[in-house]
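Honest question from a wet-lab person: if I give you the sequences of every part of a complex, can you actually get the arrangement of the whole thing, not just the pieces? Trying it with mine:
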Amino acid sequence: MKTKFILCAFCLLTTWAVAQDKYFTAPTDQPVTADAEGFVRRWTLLEPISKPNRTNTVFTDSYLREVFATEYFPGQMTLLPRDGQKVKARFEKVEMPKDYRRIDPATLKVQRGTETLRWHKLDSKTYNLKLMRFGEHYRQRLYGVIYWVVTVVRCEEDMTGVRLSVGSNSASQWWVNGTEALLLSGDRRMVADDAMSARLVLHKGDNVIRGAIINGPGMSDFCLRFVREDGTPVTQGFTIL
Amino acid sequence: MKQIFATIMALVGLSASAQVGTPYIHDPSTLAECDGKWFTFGTGGGGLISTDGGYTWGGGAERPGGGAAPDVVKIGNRYLVAYSATGGGLGGSHRGEVLTMWNKTLDPQSPDFHYSEPQLVAWSEDGDDCDAIDPGLLLDPTTGRLWMSYGTYFGNIRLVELDPQTGKRVEGNEAVDIAIDCEATDLIYRNGWYYLLGTHGTCCDGVNSTYNIVCGRSRQVTGPYLDNLGRDMRKGGGRMVIAAHHRVVGPGHFGRTVLTEGVEKMSCHFEADFDQGGYSVLGIRPLLWKNDWPVAGEPLREGTYEIESERRGYALELAVDFQRIETERRSWFRLQQSGETPKPIAQQSLADVQDKWPKGDIGVRCGDYMVRPWQRWTIEAVSGVGGSMGQPYYRIGIEGTSRSLCATPDCEVSTVETFTAAPEQLWQIDQQTDGTFRIMPVAIPGSDRRLCLVSVADSTPSLGEFDFASDNCKWNLRAH
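Yes, you can. This is the full assembly:
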């Protein structure tokens, strides 16, 4: 038994190490800049909240607004999480039959509860944040999840007329300094510059960008950057804490 | 509310086939802008003026000298007008004279309005294979040299060079034959090509006139001008640019107007407009370019369209919940076994979904086109609110409703529940030279910027500066 335990622990550590090495690195204490194309790669991500959906086609505007307005953990819309910080989050679970195509949703029994989840501050090696890999390696959760993500961008001066530009898989909602900026509904694939906010202002100093991404089956990731009115990405004038 | 809706909707439904006002003219010169007004001169003297950007046209332009088929070009801060003082027709004399004269302004209301003395620049005698009428002017943008074509069905079309400072014939210049048997020729330059446009067919026979405009092109202004088959216009070659369509026949006397890069118009007259008693009227059409050949676009037809972004191909839609069509889903291979005949499935209707839409303003976005009610836009001309060059302003609304696309004060786009014909709910729709459309609000509340509908992201429409080089500024109107 002890050997099995050690073997399992080794496997998990190895898997995470590989995943971390492949997709993420641990951030330094120093702020970073956006990458050459303006993509924001430093994020603090909460381990995925279980929210089973057998299809991504249910992600209508009204569904998303209802789900993302539900409080899963305290301070959901205000918290500036630290790396390693824990929160007690509500979850939903269902026992999925093997042949999920033949599910009658009415017969599925939803189990609800709370569990402790941790925030992880990470730098992505790629322009897009590989959420599914993140969820897989921290919670072994691939599908039927909600990811909450937060980052803080510090601007040297006010930036007016910029747009928040997001691609996400699957649907997502985004807030800038507490104000809703963007909703990407439907069964989404991640596409750079898929959707953009109205023109907004990033104030001199710290600006909090908060997002929630929901996914049923399939890959999950997102990419985000700011774009000027002329369509060019903002690559300078701010750092990411 | 129903009554208001009915009243508002009575504003729409204008015919978009002809120019508004009293646009009666024959052989209109290339459209010229002067002090915010547009002018064109015609055969016999006089011409038309538009004071609303080229939408409404009426008499009042003044050009002395009579004769046939004038042309005008702006050189520096002056206008050079060329016209022919004669014109005997096919059976008459072919002694022709082409004259030029200057004016600081085209506006007869201006104190500066005064034509200089006409000066003879080209002529023909009865024995010549040429009838010196119907001049067309080109100020070559690559060299600054001034060229004039002239002639008619009687023999050759000729090219001469004029002095752009004086408007006189360049001393010692010899005429060059560049085509035969055209009327009302015009020269233009674009993208390394010189184009000679001429009118073929029968003139002056009302609704039976077969006039049409053809062209050839050359790398040299002096020709040879070849058509798409390589046939020389001196052998009668010519590729069709515009012919009869809808309720107008007999287009003649081409003129090109570049409003901005990517948005061009062509002017002509139609020998007969069936909606205006068969009289000869001014015509303005989008000018498209296909493989470096000019082609007339058609007037935008009112109807219901998918408005597709050229950026990714997504369709403009209301930002409302996707509502599924619930059908029994069965495997196709079981149908093979049963031999059952499949039944058609009804299209989702407005009544199926409208009740679930929010009241008041609803935002817009772009998404996969699914032929759904929230993606079907009816485009209708609106009467009594003006228009732009050659066309009315339009309402763009969800089919079967009064919900209409509008510009918002923050330079974004949304929809209002009820159309009121406010300027921010009116749209100028121009077909661009590549066949796509530029869609612009007539006004943006609290702003004097002229922006157009753009795709700032695949799924996000907004308003932005027009840039013909960007697919973000291009939309396709697809009738499904």
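Two things worth pointing out. Residues 1-10, 12-16 of chain B have pLDDT under 50 and may be disordered. Residues 429 and 439 of chain B are 5 Å apart (CA to CA).
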